[in-house]
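Entry 12.
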Amino acid sequence: MDRKVRDPARKIGRPSGTKNAMRTPEEKEILIKEWQASGMGVMAFAKSKGIQKGVFRKWIRQYDFGGLASLESQSGKHGSGNRLAALRSAKNLSEVERLKLELLKKEIEIERLKKGYMVRGAGRNKEFYVLKKKNSK
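Predicted 3D structure (tokens):
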């Protein structure tokens, strides 16, 4: 029995160092409508747009089943992130925003103290200090 051996020089998947393209539901809908109007096959159209055929087929099924709302990202990646990042870097915070940021920082500090550690510094200079020698679990 002959076994196929994969060529080690052949890369599978997305090239390293590149990111997934996060498309909005509106962009996905435009691509689906463009595909419907083109008369091309799914595989040829997806390849021409640089989309994996399986992903594009999934979008088509979701759109047929639930319309535009079903194309919303379920992974939570789109539009999510650190809530504090935008506030920390903002130069002109209103009084309310500044107080909300301060309150959130205090709540985080309280939770860390409950778990038995503190953080000193910020960014790359951040250090974690254990307050208790024994594990509380």
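Annotation: The radius of gyration is 24 Å. The CA atoms of residues 14 and 20 lie 8 Å apart.
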